[in-house]
Input
Amino acid sequence: MKKPILYKLAMFIVSVFLCTTGFSQASTINTSTTTGYNGSNSSGTNGFITFVLKNNSGMAMKITQVGNWATTSHNNTVSTLWYSAVSLSGPVTLAQPDWQSVASNTVTGVTTSGVFPVIPVMSFEIPNNTTYRFAVHTTGTNNYTSGTPTVNTFTTAGVTMYTGDYQISGSYVGYAVSNNPRFFTGFVTFEPACVTAFTAQPMDVSLCALDSVTISAVADPVNNYHWQLNKGSGWIDLGNDATYGGTTTNNLRIKNTSMAMNNYKYRAVATNTAQGCSVNSDPATLSMIPSSTSTILVSADPSTTICENEEVVFHTAYTKGGTTPQYRWLLNGLEIQGETKAFLKTTKLDHGDIVQCRFISSEQCVFESMSSGIKFSIVSNLLAEVGITTSYNGGNSYTFIADPKNGGVSPKYVWYVNGKLVPNENGQSFTTDALKPWDKVTVGMQTSRDCAQPKMATSRIATTDVSEVVKTDENIVLSPNPNNGNFTIKSKSLLLDGASVYITNAIGQIVYKADINSQNHTSESHIDMGNNAAPGMYLVHVKSAGTEQVLKFAISQ
Output
C-alpha cells in the first residue's frame, strides 16, 4: 500500500524540479532568425531603432542580453539600451524623464556583418503584465534597421515583441531617426527575474562604543544568506571574526563596536539556488554615538544639622538627563525602596547617616552618575537666626530680604519699620517705596524647627542709607526679588559685551549656569532656572570682562 504513495511523491518531486528548471531557462526573441531580416537600412550616424516588449508570462522577466545588426564599423562604438513606460509609440526623443538608459557597452569583436550581441551582459526587469518600449542607440556610426517586412509581432515564453508598423494608440512602435516605420533587426534574451524578495528589511541602528547589536533581515524563498559591508568605497563580503558573527545567516551580530564604525552600512544578500539568482536587501546604517557622563547635584533643606525626627527635603539638579531620567535614593549605600522621584522627604535620619542619589539618564550613551554623599548630624538644640539684606530697585523703591538660618522648611516672617509691625507683610521679602533715609527696618522669623531656639529670632536693623543697599559698580538690578526662578537681570554696561552667569544655592552648589549673548545692544537678560528652582536663598554670579558681581535673591513658594 505504501509503494503507490512513494511513487506519487517521487513523481511530484520530479515534476516540481522540472517545472522549476524550466522557469530558470533563458529565452530569446530573434527577429533575424524568424524572418530573415537584415540590417540593410541605416537609421543614420548616432542613430537608434525602437521596439516594444509586453510581458504576459505570469512572472517578472529579466533582460540579460540584446543583439543588433552590426558591421565591423561598429567596433569601439557604444551601444546603449533605453526604455520608456510612457512613450509606447510615435516619435522619439531619447531624454529624461520619458526615457531612461538601462545598459551600455563598448562593442568589440565584430568580424562580419550580422546580428551581434552589442550589449552582452545586463540585467533589467520587466514586471508581469507590463509593456515597455526600448531603443537601441549606437554612437559614432550607423545603426542598422530593416526595411518594411510584413511580420511585426513575435512571442516567446509569454513575452511579445512588437516592431515596425505595429501600432499603439494609432502610431507606429518602430521608429528610427528617419524613414519610419522601421523594423528592429536583432534579438533580446530574457529569463525569469529572481522571485526571491525581502519580507523584512534590516533597520538602522544607533550604538554606543563597545555595544553589541543584531541586525536582521528575512527573504523568501531563500536558500542561503550572506552579509556585506560598505565603509564608503563599495560593498565587501563579511566573514565571522571578533567583530562580526552570523554572517551567513539572516541575523548579523555586531560586537566590539567603536566610533570608527560610524556610518558603516550593512546589507543582506539572499540567494535562490533553484533560480541561480540573488537579491540585495536595503542597506542599514550604523550610527555611533559619543559617550558622556551625566551629573547630579543634591541639596538638603533645612540643613545637614537637624533635630531628631525632623523632616528633611532633598532637591536635585542634573545635566544630560534626557526627557525621562530615573532616580534611585540611597541611605548609607543601600537603596531606599520605592524612592524614585526627583526629590526625597524623610524624617528617619540618624546621626551620621549619609544620603546619596544615583541618577540614570534617558539619553543614549550617557552613563549614570552618583551624587556626593550628604552626612547628617542630629542635635538637641540649634540657634535660630535671621539676617537681612537690602536691594535697590530704582527710584525710591527698595526690597528687604530675610536670610534665615535654622528657620526650618516653613518659617514665618513679620516685618517692622521703626519698631512698628507692618500689616499683611508675612513673606520672606518686603518691598516699599515709602521709606525715608533714617527709617529702620527689621524682620522677625519664627522657626519651624523643633529644636531651634529662640522660636522668634530678630534681625539687625537695616536702613535705606547707601551703605546698607546692595549695589554694584555696574548698577545691576535683579527683578523681581523674591521670584519663582524666573527673573531678569538688568545692567547699563555689564551685559553689553556678553557675560556668563551661574547661580549657587545656600550650600554653595551650582544649580544653574549659562552664557549670555547680548543682541541688539540690549542691557537685560532673562533667566529661567526651570526644575532647579527650589525655595530658598541663592546667589547669582555675573562674570564679564574679567569682573564678577554677586547678587543675593530668594525663591519663594
Q: What stands out?
A: The first strand starts at residue 27 and ends at 30. The radius of gyration is 43 Å. The chain is about 5% helix and 50% strand. The chain has a mean pLDDT of 86.
